Amino acid sequence: MRERLPAVLVALGAGIAYGVLSLRRYAQVEVTSWDLAIFEQALQGYAQLSAPIVDVKGPGFHILGDHFSPIYAVLAPVYRVVPGAQVLLLAQVVLVAVSAYVVTALAVRHLGRWRGVTLGACYALSFGVQSAIRVDFHEVAFAAPLLALAGAAWVERRPGAVVGWSLPLLLVKEDLGLTVAVIGALLWWTGERRRGPALVVAGVGGFLLTVLVVLPAFNDGGAYAYTGTLGGDRGVLATAVTALDTKLLAVVLTVAITGFAALFSPWALLALPTFAWRFTGDVHHYWGTDWHYSLVLMPIVFCAAIDAIKRRRSLRHLVPVAAGVTAVTLIGSPLASLLDADLYRETPRAAAVREAVDRLPDGASVETDIALLSHVVTDHEAYWTGTIDDVRPEYVLFDTGVGIGSPRHPESWAERTHGGDWRTVYDEAGIVLVTDTP
What we know:
Blueprint: H1 4-27, H2 35-47, H3 76-81, H4 85-111, H5 113-124, H6 127-134, H7 143-155, H8 159-166, H9 176-189, H10 195-218, H11 236-240, H12 244-256, H13 271-280, H14 297-311, H15 318-329, H16 348-358, E1 365-368, H17 373-376, E2 381-384, E3 395-399, H18 410-418, E4 423-428, E5 431-435
Parallel strand pairs: 1-2, 1-3
Antiparallel strand pairs: 3-5, 4-5
């Protein structure tokens, strides 16, 4: 079919670019958060056909007491054969590339080759996708192709396929149950009197089941871990109007990236649940566009834009607007770093990290900081220094230069914290490894 080649080229280009970016950032030990280590430790449990215990979050912490995201267990067979954080990073790249293929093919089918390729490229280069790649792997990567496929089915009026691609979202993350419910409401509104209400019930029911039953059952506190973030100490309304400039910019940019065409399709309503919990949550990372939280919105708004332009041909002139907005957002973006020669150079710090990790015996228990966690987890019993509790590790590894909150003198710090007689076995470029093992 005529849309396949351009869609393949867009997807392939995105996959190569994001694959290189992800692997080079990992090789250079770029610091984002502890999330990649958390997901890898959980995946280790799935790969061993055991509980997804994440000691990084606290000794014996069950990840299903944090978020309901069992879908990434499908990566367990691959991880068992080729263990490493790169499995998660490349899986995210593949999922994004698949979604780019779906969006581009859909756009070419209904808007013509050049407009379709333009919108597909805008999706692949969008800030929501780039931000997700920049902060390593997150479970919402699985939502990208599912939402793209559900959106394509909506545009082409295939309600059965809309339902089929929407239901797996319940396994991606608990809040997406509300998105599924909105999809059901839209189907109901368009005349699906059986499937629409059923999907609403499935979405709301899935959300309530996971938040009120499943997650509390696996959580040591017996409650949903993120209830306290809703409104925080200020209350929901006060939090909702906090940092309005940041929140409005996020909303405007989310629709502007489509040339504002998304506003003319009811499918764009799917973005409301995500914006609602982000803007009422008392966590400033939720509010802007720098993290992975906008990834689920990208297939929604681009499928909405295609739907709108398909139904109202007068909106075709908004495609160049989308291209213009996308071009502006590329300035200083994560993808722009692919043109920086420094991205491909070995740094003394990265070399020191690899040397220090190589000195750790396989299976050794290691306490480390956020900067180094994702490089320790694969072959070791890893703990974050902020949640290690009473565990006494065999080794302590800190980045004394870049590490967030890391002690500047790990040897004396380890003696004060854990007792015993600790000695330094490696100290280069700010990377310090100490042990009390004879």
